[in-house]
Design a protein that fits this description.
single chain; about 80 residues
Length: about 80
Amino acid sequence: MAQVFNAYIDADKSERFLLKLVDYWKDTLVENVHAETIRRAAKVIYPKANEPTWNRQVLKPTQAAINHAAGLGWCSRISVK
């Protein structure tokens, strides 16, 4: 996942909220990241937050980074509800 986030940042995408995500996912393989693991990550990273915060600060940025990597041919696209 670290490479996924680096590629996303290198493409001049927003870095907002990514530091905590990089720290959380570290060397997790992108193939091991699924919608449910992203939702769990949101609750771990921001345990006292609510769903809109999880969506804005974890779900959407993680999904965007993975989908950017998918565009590079590294993995499959992901959808997180």
